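# step 3/5: fold
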Amino acid sequence: MPDYVSEAILKIRDQVADEKVILGLSGGVDSSVAAALIHRAIGNQLTCVFVDHGLLRLNEAAQVMDAFAQHMQAKVVHIDASSSFIQP
């Protein structure tokens, strides 16, 4: 397979130009790979939205925030919506 990452980054930059992008980040493989590629392509033009519904694995929300906000320096909006999904 040719250098897919470089090719994808060029296509993303071309398509996005100077616009902003919002990405729904679940923490799963698909949205995480998309977020990583898009962030490499356009940097701070990307804003990820991570909705914590309270049904994640132990510490998974913190891991997602650590990976994207701390390590990648991506803009991530963390929404704690667990009270909307889980009620006693």
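# step 4/5: annotate
Residues 27 and 63 are 9 Å apart (CA to CA).
# step 5/5: archive (pending)
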